[in-house]
């Protein structure tokens, strides 16, 4: 069986033009378009594209309708479907109404789809009103059912909050039930976990499974000193190749200004993310 190649990007923080919001002026949707244009020009021909959350920054239905338009155009450009999961800045009802064209609902959004022999499971770690993440019991039961079977090339999990112990990141900023999720994935055919949320590039293993937390397309973040954290313009994406005998991840960094967007006290990080 041949390899499957897909594109992983995250934390796009898009908003519709002419709406109000802290990041609207930065036109983060233009960075997403830049990524897809680069993918197309590079001749990568991915099987699919995965975006792991924070599609919008405090988005409403108008924002998600705009994001759907942007991503439909980008999908057509690279000739591959785009799959998304929700992040802590996303809103379930607005997403279902604006992006999916469904009746507004606070139901968690998750799914399983197989592309060219590789199964993609998209999970909803976003918990309304919180910056941390968690999978509820219903979703965990569904995950158990999905993982009871295997896929020819294994399974990739897309989730916003990473299954990694990220340096400098407080545990209460991550997944509340990380261990329970990790145990399920370790005993399955999962070959990789793709996430975002932390706005820095981290690659490691959690309970033996490859885990990636990407920087994102909108901005990156770094600890300046023991008391302060800053956000700055940055744009990157990952090329993930799944082979019958392993997985490789290549990070592509696109030109950006690296200009500072905001700086704040570490104690306020939860409010910013």
Could you explain how this protein is built, in words?
The structure is a single chain. The chain is α/β, with parallel strands linked by helices. The protein has one domain (4-272): Metallo-dependent phosphatases (Purple Acid Phosphatase, chain A, domain 2, 4-Layer Sandwich), CATH 3.60.21. It is 23% helix and 29% strand. It is built from six helices and 14 strands. The strands form three sheets. It has a six-stranded mixed beta sheet with strand order 4-5-6-7-9-8, covered by helices on one side. Strands 3-2-1-12-13 form a five-stranded mixed beta sheet, covered by helices on one side. Strands 10-11-14 form a three-stranded antiparallel beta sheet, with no helix packed on it. α4 (137-146) links the parallel β5 and β6 (155-158). It is globular, with a radius of gyration of 17 Å. The model has no long low-confidence stretch (mean pLDDT 93).
Relevant terms:
alpha/beta, 273 residues, Purple Acid Phosphatase, chain A, domain 2, 14 strands, 6 helices, globular, 6-stranded mixed beta sheet
Task: Give the name of the CATH architecture.
Answer: 4-Layer Sandwich
What pattern of helices and strands is seen along the backbone?
EHEHEHEEHEHEEEEEEEEH
CATH class reads: Alpha Beta
Q: What's the number of helices?
A: 6
Describe the strand arrangement of the main beta sheet, using strand numbers: 4-5-6-7-9-8
Q: Tell me the radius of gyration.
A: 17 Å
Which fold name corresponds to the CATH topology? Purple Acid Phosphatase, chain A, domain 2
By oligomeric state, this entry counts as single chain
Beta-strand share of residues = 25-35%
Overall mean pLDDT stands at: 93
Largest sheet properties: 6 strands, mixed
How far apart are the first and last residues' alpha carbons, in Å? 41 Å
Unreliable residue runs: none
* Structural domain tally: 1
Q: How many strands?
A: 14
